[in-house]
């Protein structure tokens, strides 16, 4: 089994105006197998983008890293040292939050493909073939190649940007909230597209989303983040059918379901502030099943091949949560 991503005690932070280190990802240890579609889910500010950026090699230079990160066995983060040279584009491609805005407004679509592909050693003939294949997959007509991005709809721009991330042949795609700027119907289509991409090209995909139900529809594995920590890692099916962490359970109730009238609930209380020093469990303040032991930091424990960071995993449905 090849691991596309392996993180060991990875922490990431930024320096605040007083030069204090604010950790926004803490001690993340997880792996993503080659060919898996893995989603990072969690509320806004939980550290998903920062963790995704570390995998994609797009962390800002002023960020601070600790711990280890490997991509396909290649060490890319070793504490404060980073080794992304030759990795971005070749091993990993990044699709930003608003992919359309990553396109150059001054170049026709074909020129944008050609610029990238030329740099990766394609001839014009092989590039044209490859682009035609990718456009078919993305359900785009070849006419888009003659257009400037502003002449295309937002959804088309998004698919062009996804196409650009595929042409270099990277083995790992990281997409940050790729569905944030499209309507609910297109969301599912776009997420399914990622699955098709995985099936056709065998790439590993890391998707960042706050929508755990959407994640459940297309992912193999879900990592749930809360307050900078990974609190649960599970297969998508098991996580939705039987969430182990109380936070995961609550998270599945706050997302609207397309086509169903469902009363939405919110999770009472506020998530921790970035850098807030916490004793004990990171979810303590908002947890409906907390107990005395939760003032101590829970270890990441394995339950039936899943990982949960909680003293009181919901192995049985808790009466307090129903
Ligand atoms: N470049 C940066 N410089 C300083 N602080 C940052 C930077 N990027 C993110 N942060 C801070 O790190 C914390 C985690 O942010 P991050 O964007 O990783 O979370 P997220 O879960 O992806 O949230 P969202 O869904 O809103 O994007 C936030 O408090 C944010 O303000």
Q: Explain this structure to me?
A:
There is one protein chain. The chain has helices at residues 48-56, 109-119, 124-137, 154-166, 184-201, 212-218, 236-241, 246-251; strands at 3-15, 21-33, 37-41, 64-71, 74-78, 81-82, 92-95, 172-176, 204-209, 221-226, 229-235, 300-303, 306-309. With 322 residues, the protein is of the alpha/beta class. The protein has a domain at 3-91 and 171-183 and 211-308: P-loop containing nucleotide triphosphate hydrolases (Rossmann fold), CATH 3.40.50. The strands form two sheets. Strands 7-8-9-3-10-11-13-12 form an eight-stranded mixed sheet, sandwiched between helices. A five-stranded antiparallel sheet has the order 2-1-4-5-6, covered by helices on one side. Strand 12 and strand 13 form a beta hairpin. It is globular, with a radius of gyration of 20 Å. The chain binds adenosine-5'-triphosphate (ATP). The site of adenosine-5'-triphosphate has 13 residues, from helix 1.
Summarize the structure.
With 322 residues, the chain is an alpha/beta fold.
């Amino acid at each position: 089994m090849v691991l596309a991503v392996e993180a060991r005690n990875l922490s990431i932070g930024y320096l605040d105006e007083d030069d204090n280190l604010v950790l926004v990802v803490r001690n993340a240890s997880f792996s993503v197998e080659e060919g898996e579609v893995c989603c990072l889910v969690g509320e806004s500010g939980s550290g998903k983008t920062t963790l995704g950026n570390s995998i994609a090699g797009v962390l800002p230079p002023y960020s601070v890293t600790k711990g280890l990160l490997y991509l396909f066995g290649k060490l890319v983060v070793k504490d404060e040292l980073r080794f992304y040279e030759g990795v971005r584009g070749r091993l990993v491609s990044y699709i930003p939050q608003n992919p359309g805005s990553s396109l150059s407004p001054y170049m026709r679509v074909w020129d944008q493909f050609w610029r990238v592909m030329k740099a990766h050693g394609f001839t014009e003939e092989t590039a044209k073939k490859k682009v035609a294949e990718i456009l078919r997959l993305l359900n785009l007509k070849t006419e888009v190649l003659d257009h400037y991005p502003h002449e295309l709809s937002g959804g088309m721009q998004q698919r062009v940007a996804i196409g650009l991330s595929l042409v270099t042949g990277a083995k790992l795609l990281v997409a940050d909230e790729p569905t944030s700027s499209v309507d609910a119907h297109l969301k599912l289509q776009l997420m399914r597209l990622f699955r098709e991409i995985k099936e056709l090209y065998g790439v590993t995909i890391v998707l960042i989303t706050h929508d755990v139900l959407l994640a459940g529809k297309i992912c193999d594995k879900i990592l749930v983040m809360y307050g900078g920590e990974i609190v649960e890692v599970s297969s998508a099916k098991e996580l939705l059918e039987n969430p182990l962490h109380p936070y995961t359970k609550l998270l599945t109730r706050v997302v609207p379901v397309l086509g169903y009238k469902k009363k939405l609930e919110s999770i009472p209380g506020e998530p921790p502030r970035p850098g807030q020093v916490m004793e004990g469990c990171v979810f303590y303040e908002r947890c409906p099943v907390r107990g005395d032991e939760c003032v101590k930091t829970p270890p990441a424990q394995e339950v039936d091949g899943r990982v949960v960071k909680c003293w009181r995993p919901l192995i049985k449905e808790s009466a307090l949560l129903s």
